[in-house]
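Chapter summary example.
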Amino acid sequence: MQLFPKLLGLILTIFRKILFLWVRSVASGATREELALDPEKPVCYVLQYSSLSGRLVLEQEVRRAGLPRAEIPVPAEQAPTQSFFFLYKRLGGLFRRRQAPILTAQLHTLVKYGIQNPDQDIQIVPVSLFWGRSPDKEKSLVKLLLSDTWSVAGRLQKLLIILVHGRNTYVQFNKPLSLQQVVAEYQDNEPRATRKLARILRTHFRRVRQAVLGPDLSHRRTLVEGLVRTQAVKDAIRETARKDDIPPEKVKAKARKYADEIAASMSLTTIRFLEVVLGWLWNRIYNGIAINNIEVVKEVAQDNAVVYVPCHRSHIDYLLLSYVLYTNGLMPPHIAAGINLNMPIVGPILRRGGAFFMRRSFRDNPLYATVFNEYMHVMFSRGYSVEYFVEGGRSRTGRMLPPRPGMLAMTLRSYLRDHRKPIVFVPVYIGYEKVMEGRSYLGELRGKKKQKESIFGLAKTARKLSNSFGRVAVNFGNAIHLSGVLDENHRSWRQEAYDSDFRPPWLNDTIEQLSTLVATRINAAVAVNPIGITATVLLSTERLAMDQRQLIRLMDQFATLLKAYPYADTVTLPEGSAKDWLAYCEGMGLVSRQPQKLGDIIGLEGSNAILMTYYRNNIQHLFALPSLIACLFENNSSLRREKAVSLCGIVYPYLQSELFLRYPVDEAEVVIGRWIDVMLEQGLLRTEGDRICRPEEGTEAMLRLRSLSRFIIQTLERYHIAIAILRKYGSGKISAAELEEQSTMLAERMSILFGLNAPEFFDKTLFRSFIANLQKNEVLTTDDNGLLCYSEGLDEVAEDARLVLNVEKRQAIQQVTMLGA
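The structure predicted for these 821 residues follows.
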């Protein structure tokens, strides 16, 4: 009796080895840790459809991962004879028409065992298998035969699929179900228990398939024609024809041209080609890609339309995120790309990789705006995943830029029109240790004109591929459910009807809240790397140089500070110690070493001094509050705790707006108090009675506190410049635009005169944001002539600055302000 199973096992082993002479598979979730398996309970794997090839791939992957074998019996009495089963079996032969699949006898046997043995549990591990991961697209015979899609493949089709796509096979293991938890409710009703388990597994496989393949794709020509036939586009065509006195057919042709210019044409062949090319590219220019918290995406992608909202640091962002998602078993998103990237050669490749193109501005072109809005609505209503950058453009300073509301507004309005498919935003932080465009950013910050993208520019960039750009981190933040944001702002939104043109009065406030929340969640997923923390400490020195041993001590101490009061659970910190980080930065060519007998000096030289501000700014928000507290003691040996908390509370709303800090304003004082406690514990501050004091001069603790204060002091100096100019002119004497312009010019002058190596110090948008926040907080008002007015409260704020800024800095700002008179 034992001879037959052994013979069968030998035959299957031979078949498996033959199959894997051709097939190449990649598995996700195939470890005991990821599956969270209980070692005391037996494991049984389940595949959706009966298939010899699927069974062989399953066995290969569990052997490779060191998981319990699938071909052996379940190790329990009266248990099934194998540790795997198929949910469905197909009916029909090779040339006979296939019928609807039915539940397998193996499933019934497993349920029966569970009911008869309530004290014996089995862990059921669902395993999804994808040959080629191709979504449905074109209704051609070739596609029908050669794609493993949402449809159930027959034997001949499966053979062709394996031959064509077998070298790109993806296997996803998912966390186990408890057999007893499923059948416990129906101990006396085996048919109902079987149907329940089948329903749970069927839903699970559908959700995983949705996440991995994405929704079925329409033929691009059909999509373009469908856009032109929507009611909103028809109305826009009639209005444009009437307004411009153009025949409707010509306007319709223009609308079709716009749709064709916009629409993506996602191609599986291109995606696979890019996977191979990008895999080679990342290995060539990066030391690795660290991916964190991707479980969030895998969970929400199963039932929702996902909108990926990454920060924008480099053109590499587009490619990197799609690559990471695809290699982790998720369908790459459709990506909103600027029309400037629709270049010869590059444009068609990006379009087939999922990019859809948009013009920088279409406010004066209502026809184009309508076509684009309808295209976005099709994406969301059909459940496609989409990616766009809320900042609009790449950050040249390393900071999160103020979000532009355009794409978020389109998303929200589309969801109001049709909210059957939930939309979830997934913030993504992409952190580079060395950004490829760093040198060009320096030129642009110095006033050099931004270079237009071109084939020649691409060829120039290609020459950099021999350089090393360190490691890259892709951190996924906590998801934002759009329905939750709407519930907070307008609870009755589900009961109201919205068309493509309707803009309810509460819409703008909701968009503003959503955009701030997205930016805040991106910053809350920041990756701290050796370059950023080294830059932060070195840039806090006056001469941009420090004794090596002292630098290492400070870096370790500030990393400990971040661990003492973590900013968010999605923040990641570098491995190793400061000594390792410094050696790494030196190897990257970003710091210089000057040997000295008393100890080597580490410094920043030339353009690296400015370039490192970019990496410092990536993580500046993490140190914002402890640095603000440290600033209070630049010019004061001691303060009452209440006064310290109050002063920080006054400044906090402006820091929160500029750095997208995660703590609400009404919680700020509690968080500030907690940071004061942490700084006392860390020895950065001390107490004398009811007062908080700085450390004694000349001590190591005072050095740390002074260094910490310089992490944020330039931001406070920038605020003081704007207030000083405003007070110089007086209330009702200067407009917001004039104040912005004067502040920018004087900050740039101060930067030159006093050697401030921080391009964002004279960033016009930061002054604009600060002035807007002064108005929002009613510190400033605008009179009928558009001039800024203020009360005595502003004078009190200026006086409080004396407690924050030291004498030298206050005199410097006063001097520069007088020079601008």
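To summarize the output: The longest strand covers residues 423-432.
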